[in-house]
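User: My advisor, Dr. K., asked me to get a structural model of this assembly before our group meeting. I'm new to this, so sorry if the format is off. These are the inputs:
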Amino acid sequence: MRAPSTLFDKIWDAHLVDVQEDGTCLIYIDRHLVHEVTSPQAFEGLRTAGRSVHRPQATLAVADHNVPTTDRSKGIQNPESRLQVETLEKNVADFGVPYFETDDIRQGVVHIVGPEQGFTLPGTTIVCGDSHTATHGAFGSLAFGIGTSEVEHVLATQTLLQQPAKNMLIKVDGELPPGVGAKDIVLAIIGKIGTAGGTGYVVEYAGTAIENLSMEGRMTVCNMTIEAGARAGLIAPDEKTFEYLKGRSMSPKGAAWEQAVEYWRTLKSDDAAKFDAVVELDASELVPEITWGTSPENVIPITGNIPDPAQESNPQKRAAWERSLAYMDLKAGAAIEGTPIDRVFIGSCTNGRIEDLREAAGIAKGRKVAATVGAMVVPGSGLVKEQAEEEGLDKIFIEAGFEWREPGCSMCLAMNDDRLEAGERCASTSNRNFEGRQGKGGRTHLVSPAMAAAAAIKGCLTDVRKLEAED
Amino acid sequence: MEKFNKLTGVAAPMPIRNIDTDMIIPKQFLKTIKREGLGKNLFDEMRFLDDGSENPDFVLNKPAYRNASIIVAGENFGCGSSREHAPWALKDFGIQVIISTSFADIFYNNSFKNGMLPIKVDAETLAKLMEDAERGANATLTVDLEAQTIEGPDGGTVHFEIDSFRKHCLLEGLDDIGLTQQKTSKIEAYEEKQKTAQPWLSA
Ligand code: SF4
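Assistant: The format is fine. Below is the predicted structure of the whole assembly, which you can bring to the meeting.
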């Protein structure tokens, strides 16, 4: 009899091409996403060595990091950004890789595009030269970020050399209170286990609170798994997963669909499967969460106070907190709520999907952005934008005083023109609050879409539940 | 990939935890389409002041550490993005070895692909090496990959662990794409099998 195995073990075993004597595994990669920032050197490497792309049709490329979120008809103004996108365009043409042009409605942030097209499928291995590839794990696929040398390796061979990971189970049971969502779950998890808590692990998320999330919510949770240091996050596929994928342009059709679903239903951890670590969380105890510092593990409830480094016994941690407080210009012990903000960013591969925009629009509706705040909404893809416009969300945002932009990574990492000025404070739905992440000297507070919209209205960090209560 | 065997060099202390990839190489320098030339912007925001001049307080700007080839750092070095620009920038600056108690997975992988050696040690060893590194111009360490040892300025030696395949590739400077391509028949056999088992993936 086969030993009980985890979902990760099953996907891993199903992709083994070869195992070396020392235990290093060669695993097959089913799907490879490519973007303009981490691929030029990989294609260049192929060219220099006279190699070709082993399976172009298993690859999908899109430009997202550098693209402007304003009118694109005049092209990209910044010469370096333009060169990077043009280089991608030349590479995909030379090597025969499918590509969505920057004016294609299907263009968007790579991790939004994959699931939206049905390129992301349960039980597959998916990689991309981007750490937030973890997002795709929401479909029960083993999805992880790789470096450029590995991008080249996958392009050339459709495989990767890997060591197996350890298994961690994060179980979130209970019902989420009103005003609390997927983003709060994942922020709470990172706050609990820390940014290195998942190092060496693949995390499987389970429990009733995870099952009850929409596919969008599950993607938000898996997306930030990398912020806890884990290689990938996984959620077993279920009827919701199949429902989401059915009819998408690259999803299997007809008899192949039936056959695929039959296989996908087998993709779950066995009841007796052993995990190397287990973390449990009670969803009913969660509140809207927010980061106060410059590491995603610096999480507190919006009702909480900024921690005091003097109370931290680990000297390295204490030094990091002091550095964070100075950078963020915050006072130890003070309440975080009420801190004035300058900017709001709603978007990114964490929270740039239709449901995120609906959540933010629900708060923005009939209200006005505070006069002191510049707020922007950047849909995750052209298709998300189109859907939002069909639902009239764009009008709600514009009437409230938000800017309504073209899709891309935008101010999640500020490689295009969208960025914070030094000293500006931002409530952001993105995933990283590192020093300078959204612009040199910019200060980032990570929050849910509802919390970001609420901050825009109030002009300060605020508890969205109060706003909801005013209706 | 380049070979790595033995290195004697100055070790710079960076007792900061969670040194992330945005600190190592900020995004404005990711617009390059080359691997080279990133060293001048390594740790850009810590290394330079707003007017572009060097920050004299930053460790790699201090005379004793300008030629450092080793960094001794706090836990979880290289967390954040998958950007291989981080090891490229370190390497272009001249850093070949990083010693810490833990590394982010992707950064750890990326380093080996560039002929660099990230070394994991326990907290006690790190504290000792950090002290060594803080001795300025005398902060010289010798890292021997073959023997898996780090020798301190006083001649004391510590042992480190590394997986045998990575060690072998680094010592020999092996091209892992070339190695994998020797297994093309196995890859093709896998693809054939998948065509029958999961035909929807090959469509
Ligand atoms: S939205 Fe942000 S995190 Fe996501 S892929 Fe783009 S830059 Fe990376």
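One thing worth pointing out at the meeting: Chain B has one domain: 6-172.

User: Perfect, thanks a lot.
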